[in-house]
Amino acid sequence: MDGRARGSIVNVASVAGLRPAPGIDFYGASKAMLVALTRSLAVELGPTIRVNAVAPAVVKTRFAEQLVANAQDTVHETYPLARFGEPEDIAHAVTYLLSEDSSWVTGQIHVLDGGALLKGGV
C-alpha cells in the first residue's frame, strides 16, 4: 500500500486474545498479538486505510464442532444470549467494518461473544 490506496482491513482475532483461557495459551497469545497489530496499523495506515478486528467467542464451525457438541446443554450458563455464535454473526460484523457505514471506525476490536465475557467466560 503506497499511501494513495483507500480501504479497510478487518482482522479476525478472538476473545481468547482478550482474556486468558486454560488449554489455549499459544492460541490466545497469537490473537493478543493480532489485537495489538490491529491497533498499531490503524495508527500507521490512517487516514486512508482503516484497520479493525472482530474477536468472536465460540462460533459453530467445523473448528469448534466438538466444543459446541460438549457444551450445548450448558451454553445458557456461560452466554447471556444462550447460544453459540453462527458464522453469519461474524460475517455481518465484518461486512459492516468493510463498508462505508463504518467510515469513522478504526483501531477497534469488536467483541462478538453473546455476552460471554460479561460472565467471565471465553
Automatic annotation (TrEMBL):
Pfam families given in the database record: adh_short_C2 (PF13561)
Q: Which domain of life is it from?
A: Bacteria
Mind telling me which InterPro entries this protein's record contains? NAD(P)-bd_dom_sf, SDR_fam
Q: Which family does it belong to?
A: Belongs to the short-chain dehydrogenases/reductases (SDR) family.
Q: What is this protein called?
A: Uncharacterized protein
